[in-house]
Amino acid sequence: MSETTDIALAAKGDKAAFKRLYDRHIRNVYGQVLRLTADASLTDDLVQEIFVQVWRSLPKFDQRSKFSTWLYSLANNVAITELRKQTRWFKRNQRAAEQEDPHRCADLEDGIDLGALDQLVIKLPEQTRQVFVLHALNNYSHQQIADLLGIAEGTSKSQFHRARNLMQEWL
Description:
The chain is mostly helical and 171 residues long.
């Protein structure tokens, strides 16, 4: 079935149609959230929460935008909101990043293989990584990032520049 048909059916409560939507998008949503959080167990929890919210919000989806755009926007918002709540997250992430070799591929427990670029992205400091992922990978404008993260537009630009410099240095 087409994605449009599955969206309409799932919005009416069709679990099989929702499962097809889930299967189509789970890998990309997981990768997106993992890049933002740099924490596989937190990502597992957030992806579950994201799809619960999708199930609840699907009847309100107006189809003026692409489903994937709406879904990834929801995923970004859920991930960033959770990161704001995490008081010890940065320390955990920093320790994990220090133990990782940025030049090897890490095979996560669930079978998702991160390439060398993703390893570098995960190694970036929290806000720098968020700006990089949102701008470079999701095509958010610096103003959109500033609004989402509660920072100045200039801060978004400087964090993106910092991310590029760090990654070039590591390469």
